[in-house]
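call fold(seq) -> tokens
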Amino acid sequence: MIRGNAALVVDELGPISGIDFGFDASSVAWVDGYIERQRERFAGKDEAAQLVAVLGSWLGEAIIKAAGGIWDVHVRDEIGVRFENGDWCFPFSKVAKQFAHGQADGGETLLAFYNVSIDLIANGRLAVAADYEPSDKEGDA
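ret:
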């Protein structure tokens, strides 16, 4: 179902994006703006939850295509991407937070989340970048 949702995003948003839309950084940046444009339209509606599920699936697949990893259920009962090094990122949570709070509140963009996930978390460099040692190998994005 997750891969089907991700393919749906490419099929539906690709033609309206005006870019070579897929599972790459430029597409993530475009979806970032798309969410901002849709926030008011879907505020408080059930459709927003459906859009979060579909876009979160696509974001996770983009991260997996760039950095590896697999979909899994975390011990805190949340679906996320688990990397080979044991660290995690949670695309559904990120998309939901952006729908709820947007970027205007100083929130992290989808593109920043994507970059941190593939450049730092997937490579086990988040702790080094943050200059601390996690105690339980759960570098959550």
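The helical segments are 2-17, 25-42, 46-67, 91-101, 110-121, 126-130.
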